[in-house]
Amino acid sequence: MMINGITHTLHLAPMAELTTPALREVVKKFTGNVVLYSEMLASGAINAKAPHNEPLIKRYDFDTPFCYQLVGNNPAIMANAASVLQDYGCDGININMACSAPHILKTGGGANLLCNFNLAKAVIAACRKNVRGLLTVKMRAGFHDIDLLFLRQFVSMLQDEGVDAVIIHPRAAKWGFTRKAHWDVIEAIVTAVKIPVIGNGDITNAELAMQRLQQTHCDGIMIGRAAVQKPWIFARCQALLQQQSLSLSLDIEEIWIEVLENIQSMLPARLHKSRAHRFCAYYHKNVTFGHTLFSSIRQCSDINDMIVLIKDYFKRNEVERIKIV
Ligand SMILES: Cc1cc2nc3c(=O)[nH]c(=O)nc-3n(C[C@H](O)[C@H](O)[C@H](O)COP(=O)(O)O)c2cc1C
């Protein structure tokens, strides 16, 4: 995907309560070559200028390239919200047709738009009129199941309506996270449309990311959960893209505490506990007894108490602090 004349292959997946500036900053420290996304933002709340959204909208110097992700299903409301977000400064607006969480489906947004072709088309047409930068769509490969014929028609419609790139998580919405991501679907869509196709789903390491790129000829790779556990994953991907080898000496404790301290300094106190727990739910997998440590962390409301537990863990398990990848 081209942004300001530069091709961007790597994308950090938008994830509610996870892709906070706290995580984005650390991802960017490892490599600049990754497109960042905000947490999902509800179009109605954006238009209402709801104060609770301010910390989720705030953009930092490291947030570049940066896209806001918008969810909703009313064309006029979505188009207006896209304008509002654009005025905050960003490289693009991403429309969420991927979320399968029941509270989002109930509102008619997220993956529900896959069930209403004409409404999805109207949402894109309205947003396209207001978005000067990139307009992209993140979508599941189907709602109840994957239907390749439907998917081709749907992505062709997005292309015809002026969408600049499509990100496909090749699972049906109703599958949630069960079954595996069907990457053969990505390959089929790449050959069917002209716009860039970015593949997403179940990438766990840089080598697999390269394998998926080569197999499917897709234009980019988006990584979600593995990037929370390994915020350095894009640096390794970038090195492989440049046919270089990269060995990183990581201080697992330092990175952990940095994200938690970022949460404290970048987000309001009401979000500290939820965002810290969310991050630790993935990052704890980097250490042998992480499960037990995470159980203790979940008892804490205050990030300072979580940090005490983490420091104590590494004092007792010093050999786990430095990891070479
Ligand atoms: C906790 C969590 C929150 C998520 N929130 C969003 C979201 O707000 N918007 C979205 O498009 N996808 C969301 N996703 C889906 C991810 O962006 C991504 O498509 C999915 O995790 C598959 O990629 P992965 O296997 O690399 O994690 C979320 C996923 C998780 C695990």
Keywords:
325 residues; alpha/beta; TIM Barrel; 8-stranded parallel beta sheet; two-stranded antiparallel ribbon; 15 helices; 12 strands; 18% strand; binds flavin mononucleotide
Beta-strand content estimate: 15-25%
Write down how many β-strands occur, each being a DSSP E stretch of 2 or more residues. 12
- Rg (CA only): 19 Å
Cross-sheet strand order for the largest sheet: 3-10-9-8-7-6-5-4
Bound molecules: flavin mononucleotide
Tell me about the biggest sheet? 8 strands, parallel
What form results from the Cα inertia axes?
globular
SSE run: EEEHEHHEHEHHEHEHEHEHHEHHHHE
CATH level 4 superfamily of the largest domain: Aldolase class I
CATH overall fold name of the largest domain = TIM Barrel
What is the total domain count? 2
What is the arithmetic mean of pLDDT? 97
In the predicted model, the low-confidence regions spanning at least 5 consecutive residues are: none
In helices, the fraction of residues equals 40-55%
Describe this structure as you would to a colleague.
By secondary structure, the protein is α/β, with parallel strands linked by helices. Helices cover 46% and strands 18% of the residues. It has 15 helices and twelve strands. 43% of the residues are buried. The structure holds flavin mononucleotide (FMN).
